Amino acid sequence: MTLFYRHLISDARLSTFETKNNFQNHYIIINANTKIYIFKPMALIKGNQIMLMVDNKAIAFASAHTLNITGETVDTSSKDNGEFGSQTVNRINWEITSSNFVTSYSAGVNGYDKMFDLMIAKQPIDVVFGTPGNYDANGLIRGGNSASEAPTEWNYGTSYLTGKAVITSLNLTANVGETATFESTLTGTSALSRVGSYIM
């Protein structure tokens, strides 16, 4: 790319950036009608960057999350379709599963105890799924650590998925010699809505 555009760039004016679709993109002005955009390469998102939050708090010590969105179809085949059937999506269903380690009870922590209480209550809860606004690759720093600049609790950013869901399953696994785990399934009871200009 450098060799190809060298003769253009030598006479061009390098601008700072402009905002397009909420991304700041550098560009080079060739003339009044021509710009060459220099887009930053897209970064791959790692699984540990995506969190599930219930009632404004992440479920503690998560190891995996899965979001499943399915379309419920209705057979709309008619004689006009010939040998091939026709389907129409009637409604959208969604659910999120969360796998977590079991910890001893701590007030204010969304652990197994909290999820148990929410399931027994049988009431819809607010769910947020996305990358925390204060994500730190070094993880959370809890009380007693001197690294005060690190987050002590995840909070959601400006772009995420959200909706209301009920807990429809809560399975705890306790094997000899292994750390106990639990898996919860949250089934949507409302639309799963996008907040912000992108999802993750």
Question: What secondary-structure arrangement, pairings included, does this model have?
Answer:
Layout: H1 2-9, E1 13-14, E2 18-20, E3 23-31, E4 34-38, E5 51-54, E6 57-58, E7 62-75, E8 87-101, H2 112-121, E9 125-130, E10 160-173, E11 181-188, E12 193-195
Antiparallel strand pairs: 1-3, 2-3, 3-4, 5-6, 5-9, 7-8, 8-11, 9-10, 10-11, 10-12
Into how many domains do the coordinates divide? 2
Give the distance, in angstroms, between the N- and C-terminal Cα atoms: 30 Å
The 3D shape can be described as: globular
Helix amount: under 10%
The CATH class of the largest domain, by name, is Mainly Beta
Measured by DSSP, the beta-strand proportion falls in 35-45%
Biggest sheet features: 8 strands, antiparallel
Structural class: mainly beta
Please count the helical segments: 2
CATH topology category name of the largest domain: Pnp Oxidase, Chain A
Low-pLDDT ranges: 1-24, 143-148
Q: How many strands appear in the DSSP assignment? A: 12
Under the CATH scheme, the architecture of the largest domain is: Roll
Gyration radius (Cα, Å) is 24 Å
Average pLDDT for all residues: 78
Instruction: Give helix and strand order, one letter per element, not per position.
Output: HEEEEEEEEHEEEE
